[in-house]
TrEMBL record:
UniProt organism field: Rhizobium paranaense
Record domain ABC transporter: where: 370-902
Source organism superkingdom: Bacteria
Main localization of the protein described in the UniProt heading: membrane
Domain ABC transmembrane type-1: 75-326
Molecular function, one GO term: ATPase-coupled lipid transmembrane transporter activity
Membrane topology according to the record: Multi-pass membrane protein
Protein name: Putative ABC transport system ATP-binding protein
Protein location: Cell membrane
Gene Ontology CC terms, in alphabetical order: plasma membrane
Record-annotated membrane-spanning stretches: 18-37, 84-108, 179-205
Length: 904
């Protein structure tokens, strides 16, 4: 990277800087005129110079030039104005100059801002580009939070400085020199006084600010280290809690914050000392002007207009001068930051840009063997984890790698997947070094999966298809306005040195996955998910999801057909009792009291049980039907039972997971309410207390909670109140309550609830599993499996995929590798979270499901259990970084070597 920030800025913004410097030079002309005009106004119309006689006039705006060869050229003869109108005309000219100078500043500052933001965009992109080109080993030595902080925060001042790098000294220096020259032209000695003060400020203040720069550098380093430490705490929070080291971390953070405080306090002290001295020098000059200039005026050596003009000119001198000194400090500060960024991002062994070039064209198949020759890998401790290994793996061959953990097989797999770079030796394909091949070939035709998984924040679909997104293949459809906006964005990207790639385009290489487009991609996805035993998980996610009725209209429009098919299957298997359907004239005992009251669902978070219980219409309905006292009594008894059963349990006790009406944090509140209200009746409670008690009853289900609170009389009363509720429901409630309708899809309910249009009976323990199985069969028979799969793939995996279990993450990671249909599939102990039996099932499913034609991929699998080796054509046995045996399982068993020891 370029070591000098100024050279970096000039090399990337040369033409823009020349243009804005030209504008700055042009702005000095009206700036100088604005200094001279007050003198003309004071000496002319105000003091009457040239207007000694009544009615006398002067020429205004006479414009003429003496041009060599051409002689005298008169552009405008001017206007003859009296004293009053001359005052008005000169004042208007002064106003025009003020506006013109303001417009110059507006244009210059706007242009600087755009230039700075463009440069900030450029440097951030270049830094991220370098991160993408770091050698794999470098990531073991850096903290992600520190890198992110540098790119996000520490380069921020560089963007603002870009616009000021050349313009600011030219503009401010030009203004200061213009004001100083004007003062000297009015009076030499006053000019020398101003020049002396300027010289002191220009020499003394920057020297004093060197200490500020050093303190600023220390502040930046400590802040970056704090960011990295906080990132470590977030990533290692499980380890911290497991080892009771929260107070150790608090002590460490307190020490770091104390260090930052001391640095910042010193910074503030020094900063305001410098500011005090600078302000003092700035205020001394007007004192000298008033005293010395006044003395000259009294002696007649300086007229009043000149004195006013000098004072007015000096008024504009400290500002640019102070800003110029600030610019110099900013320049040094930003250069220090830039040097640190250059130091952090100047890494040896960066991947060449040509290896990562965009390639929309399909990658050709790898038809040559993968050959490792004399391969040696040394870890960070200096140990040889792979020692002079040579091996050749042919297309279509299945190879098992076995050995104890750390024996060397894992490192061979990482080297083949380009995750580790060998220290000596090399890996070649058709004589070409693997590390010199473009990623558009190796990243598409070599797939790698290990137990170390990472998923980006987004949907399951985006993460599953991530391995197919190599280049923008299909442009997005834009209307005219969006197309113009996109074109402007691409122009800006080019000016900022960013690639002109449209993220809104479709990047998925459907052909590589064996599909023709998004319409049949699920036909390629389903076999992969089946092979890694992930289909069931995704279908379960779909059933628990709310469905977008616009995106998945193909399913939601057939919900009545799906419900009928489910009912028919239940009847065929004589298990109709597993589901209690919703009926408007009947109470559903498997649903909550709230659901029975509403005969619908709340659109959360717009409406909650607490808000509903407090709604005036609801309270009026309760009073008219007598349900207010009934539900109050029920809620109070629920509170009494909950407090009695759970008050002594810790907040993380699993029993609280069974409570749908109360959390562990609510227990103390309801304990106090029970003590206050028990035995006092409905009228003793305040309106807020009634709401808090009544809302508990909304989540009550008799067969589940079994407090014996629901009588047939109360259920009948709730059904009658339901009809009355919907008969006169106000508009504000109608918008947030979606009524159950057997003929349409309920958008605020889950897919499973829509399919059931009822509730599963709680009495049978295996009812949910049996219902799930039947639903999957219904989806398959009606050709809706792809639609349901699509809904499941909409699931948000969270940050780093943390909303998935460890098992699900490993399955998904392996599935993503398989979906690429690569020529070489490298599996580096990809499923250690699963038991050996399930690992065996998945391995068999993958190997038996492979294409056995001439296009069959090679599979290299580092096994956790050597017993699986019989599934493979060849076995490589590693011990202490060396390849000690190679051959078929039969041959290796006959040798009575290490492979047989591993099996025993």
């Amino acid at each position: 990277m370029e070591k000098s920030l100024a050279r970096y800025i000039w090399s990337n913004t040369r033409l823009e800087q020349i243009w804005i410097l030209t504008i700055v030079a042009a702005s000095m002309i009206p700036y100088f005129l604005s200094f001279d005009l007050p003198k003309q106004i004071v000496n002319g119309p105000i003091q009457g110079k040239g207007f000694e006689h009544p009615g006398q006039t002067q020429t205004f705006m006479h414009i003429s030039f003496d041009v060599p060869v051409l002689g005298h050229i008169e552009v405008f003869q001017g206007l003859q104005l009296t004293r009053f109108w001359m005052l008005i005309a000169l004042s208007l000219v002064f106003l025009a100059l003020v506006v013109l100078n303001g417009l110059f500043k507006l244009y210059i500052n706007t242009y600087k801002g755009r230039l700075g933001e463009r440069m900030l965009r450029r440097i951030r992109f270049e830094l991220i580009d370098r991160v993408l080109r770091f050698p794999p080993a470098h990531f073991k030595r850096v903290k992600p939070a520190e890198i992110a902080t540098m790119i996000k925060d520490e380069v921020e001042p560089m963007g603002g400085f870009t616009g000021d790098a050349f313009v600011q000294p030219a503009l401010l220096g030009g203004q200061a020199v213009t004001a100083l020259v004007f003062i000297i032209l009015q009076n030499f000695w006053l000019g020398m006084i101003a020049a002396a003060i300027v010289a002191v400020q220009a020499v003394v203040i920057p020297r004093m600010r060197k200490r500020l720069l050093e303190l600023g550098r220390q502040r930046q380093l400590t802040a970056r280290e704090l960011s990295g430490r906080v990132g470590e705490i977030v990533e290692g929070i499980g380890t911290i809690h497991a080892n009771d080291t929260t107070n150790l971390e608090r002590a460490d953070i307190a020490y770091r914050l104390g260090l930052i405080f001391s640095i910042r306090y010193d910074l503030y002290q020094w900063k305001f000392l410098v500011k005090f001295i600078n302000n003092f020098l700035a205020q001394v000059t007007p004192f000298l002007f008033y005293s010395i200039g006044g003395f000259f005026a009294l002696q007649g050596r300086l007229d009043i207009g000149q004195l006013v003009a000098v004072i007015n000119a000096y008024k504009d001198l400290p500002g640019p001068l102070k800003e110029l000194i600030d610019w110099d400090q900013s320049r040094q500060d930003v250069q220090v930051k830039y040097n640190q960024v250059v130091e952090q991002f100047s890494v040896d062994g960066l991947i060449e840009p040509k290896i990562q070039l965009v390639s929309p064209a399909p990658a050709g198949r790898i038809t040559h063997p993968l050959v490792a020759t004399n391969l040696t890998v040394i870890d960070d401790s200096g140990a040889r984890v792979l020692d002079h290994v040579s091996v050749e793996i042919h297309p279509g061959e299945t190879v098992a790698i076995v050995g104890d953990s750390g024996a060397g097989g894992e490192y061979l797999a990482e080297a083949l997947g380009r995750l580790v770079w060998p220290d000596t030796g090399r890996i070649t394909i058709d004589g070409r070094d693997l590390l010199e091949l473009p990623e558009s070939l190796t990243g598409r035709r070599i797939a790698y999966a290990s137990s170390e998984t990472f998923f980006f924040h987004g949907t399951l679909r985006n993460n599953l298809l991530y391995g197919l997104k190599h280049a923008p293949l299909t442009s997005a459809d834009y209307d005219d306005e969006a197309a113009i906006k996109l074109k402007w964005q691409m122009v800006e990207a080019r000016r900022a040195g960013n690639p002109e790639l449209d993220i809104s385009s479709d990047w998925v290489d459907y052909t590589a996955a064996g599909a023709t487009g998004p319409q049949d991609i699920y036909a390629a996805i389903r076999p992969v998910l089946d092979a890694v035993a992930m289909s069931q998980d995704i279908l379960d996610m779909a059933l628990r999801s709310n469905v977008d009725t616009v995106t998945h209209d193909d399913l939601t429009s057939r919900i009545v057909e799906l419900r009928q098919a489910l009912r028919l299957r239940l009847q065929e298997e004589n298990i109709e009792g597993l589901v209690v359907p919703f009926e408007f004239d009947a109470y559903n005992p498997q649903a909550t009291v709230g659901e029975n009251m509403l005969f619908g669902t709340l659109k959360r978070p717009l409406m909650t049980n607490r808000k509903l219980a407090a709604h005036p219409y609801f309270q009026k309905l309760f009073t008219e039907t007598g349900l207010d006292t009934d539900l109050y009594d029920m809620g109070l008894e629920i509170a009494e039972n909950a407090v009695e059963l759970f008050t002594d349990l810790p907040p993380d006790h699993p029993f609280f997971q069974q409570l749908t009406f109360m959390t562990a944090e609510d227990i103390p509140t309801y304990e106090a309410l029970v003590q206050k209200l028990n035995g006092k009746g409905f009228s003793a409670a305040t309106p807020d207390e009634r709401v808090a008690i009544i809302r508990l009853s909304f989540s009550y289900i008799e067969p589940r909670h079994r407090f014996g609170l629901l009588t047939q009389t109360l259920m009948d009363k709730i059904v009658k109140a339901r009809a009355k509720f919907h008969e006169h429901i106000p508009a504000d409630l109608a918008r947030v309550i979606e009524r159950y309708d057997p003929e349409r899809f309920t958008a605020s309910a889950t897919l499973m609830d829509n399919m059931l249009f009822g509730r599963i009976a709680h009495q049978q323990a295996d009812a949910p599993e049996r219902i799930h199985t039947i639903m999957y069969d219904v989806f398959e028979r009606l050709g809706m499996q792809d639609s349901v799969l699509s809904i499941g793939l909409d699931f948000d995996v969270g940050s780093g995929g943390k909303r998935l279990t460890n098992v699900q993450r490993q399955k998904l990671n392996l599935g993503r590798a398989l979906l690429k249909r690569a020529d070489y599939i490298i599996c580096n102990r990809p499923l250690p979270a699963l038991d050996h039996r399930v690992q065996d099932q998945i391995a068999r499913a993958i190997l038996t499901g492979l294409d056995r034609s001439e296009n069959a991929p090679a599979v290299i699998w580092v096994l956790s259990n050597p017993g699986f080796a019989e599934l493979f054509d060849r076995v490589l046995v590693f011990d202490r970084g060396s390849l000690v045996e190679s051959g078929t399982t039969t041959d290796l068993l006959e040798k009575n070597g290490m492979f047989k020891e591993l099996l025993s």
